[in-house]
Amino acid sequence: MIQKLALHGGHPVIAQPLEGFKSMGAEEEAAVVRVVRSGILSAYIGAPGEGFMGGVEVKSFEAKAAHKFGVKHAIAVNSWTSGLIAAVGAIGVEPGDEIITTPWTMSATAMAILHWNAIPVFADIDRATFNLNPESVRRNITPRTRAILAADIFGQSADMDGLRAIADEYNLKLLTDTAQAPGSMRSDGYTGTKADIGGFSLNYHKHIHCGEGGILVTNDDQIAERLCLIRNHAESVVPASSSAKDLANMIGYNFRMGELEAAIASEQLDKLEERVRDRQRVAAELDAGLIGLEGLATPYVPPYTDHVYYVYGMVLDTEKLGVSRDRIGDALRSEGVPGVSTAYQNIHRLPLFMQKIAYGTQGFPWSLRAGERDFAYGVGTCPVAEELQDRSYLGLAICMNQLPSADVAQIVEAFHKVWRNMETLRSR
Ligand SMILES: *Cc1c(COP(=O)(O)O)cnc(C)c1O
What we know:
Largest sheet: 4 strands, parallel
Bound molecules: pyridoxal-5'-phosphate
Oligomer: single chain
Radius of gyration: 23 Å
């Protein structure tokens, strides 16, 4: 007797919610107490001098992160969204310049481009890795392209060798958003560190977190200086700074990380390797448990990177299965599987891009290029990302739960139950 699906009134495989992701321990608690007792929760001053680069906790976290990731500069910011904005500003784009990015990422990646009145152009992704397809990037290059902003999505490096070759050929800057892949390794070092600017998020649900925060990484001294300026009210400081002669985009913000966050982030950094290993355990158990399920492709990890699994991203062959992705997703959710997602992102199809309404209502910044280039967004511009979004992508946000082996086994059992009952999903 096959157990009836929970979707059809049967008992769910997972009746109780699984334990949520928790990673704060005694070390973070002690760090917070230390900082609170010091009385200094932030030591920044938005003017030239001692306090311009922040307090002791921020500086010590930055030094630790630079050492850990093997980069010359690690720069703490108050969120990775801030980090992305600072990164695009630091490369000195002109309003109306084009930056090629991916539609399969969090919106903040693309928004960072718009913040400087530059224009995001979306290249398509690779169906197996969900990351930018270098050939599609190449097809989107024009004389106004200034940079490529990649993302190392779900936990593994984008094809940085392919992207670097194109960037070098066309004299473009190469930036990457490694929010979801801290601790992922390539043969040439940590993912995110080989771009001109990379960086990580420290938001909740990311591998390591401190409330809100981010960390920029670069090996370029000049870029590092510009990042630090944008972080802390650049405009008011540049005249007094001896080396910062380039005034382009020296419109600053308050992107400063506080001492509490830095102290927590520093403790979290020590736990990154352990966290990564545990995620890889979860993924290995899922791989082993889901292998052989018809029409389901588990994550593909290309040879140039490992995977740290922020999301466990799968692809369904719904034609073979004869059941829609969304119906399978509903069935899995009904069985109590946490973190099931039946869509990710198609940034190029957001109303903001489709209608070209960002700053005001007159099509700025696209209007800067009126009569010269008509930027096309929407359906048809990134067919691979669209097909995944509309039909075949199925994800498990494994970042949301602790997932000891017993819990992973239940998730695997829920998948098998749904697959055993696939016929009933077809007929109803
Ligand atoms: C989380 C995330 C961000 C934003 O980071 P915050 O620290 O939350 O601002 C940007 N890009 C990607 C791909 C992310 O996953």
